[in-house]
Amino acid sequence: MTRTLAGRTILMSGGSRGIGLAIAERAARDGANVAIVAKTDTPHPRLEGTIHTAAAAIEAAGGQALPVLGDVRSQESVQEAVDRTVERFGGIDVVVNNASAIDLSSTADLSMKKYDLMQDINTRGSFLLAKTALPHLRASGAAHVLTLSPPLNLNPRWAGAHLGYTIAKYGMSLVTLGLAEEWREHGIAANSLWPRTAIATAAVQNLLGGEKAMAGSRKPEIMADAAHAVLTRAPAECTGQFLIDDEVLAEEGVTDLSVYGPPLEELLPDFFLDE
Q1: Active site residue 165
Q2: H/E/C letters for each residue in 193-223?
Q3: Which of 115, 165, 170, 260 is catalytic?
Q4: What is the pTM of this model?
């Protein structure tokens, strides 16, 4: 691809590891500025990476990094992250809503504390980060909000399997749907991106099946390359869409996905996508 994110500034929630870090590193290879606001300041026994190791990886890849210790559940924390990003880089071109909490418990077993956590991080956090960055997105000539959330699939299978998590993830997708329409007049694109298959992340390792599930997962780089393709498109030509990683890459002419992991028949499908 010849399109580039060089010189653009990305503000991302999460990003210390996994898909978020892969997206940040891909943008950094273009020479982008990347600010990540996340809670992992010191190493965690089950979670690889901190905001500081992520910042080092971003700079090693060729970008400028700003690690911000913060919490997307807090309005004050998000405002601080936006202010510091603008102070350091002069503006914001892209918001990536990457932070997300997951608990697949049934309704009977899901505590309201976990329900509230998913709502606050996933839905409220995505709304808040985009809302707070709006004045700076309006000043950009290439503004995007990219949210890592699924198509709004009303097949009752998904809500019936894990209602609390489904509500929280679909809430993120409603943020995309609404912002795309509301902010179209400002020239700001809003899209969601979701993987066709499981992605090898800490959530898969720790919560969704361990090594067996990891063996059936693609590398996070497939989402990074798809995100790069979306974020380098003209906002007026790509907004209000619920995009799937391999379909985005196919539109870019990339059909050999072997670099990202096993063949499709060996991979685990992701949530919210019907067979």
Answers
A1: yes
A2: EECCECECCHHHHHHCCHHHHHHCCECCHHH
A3: 165
A4: 0.96
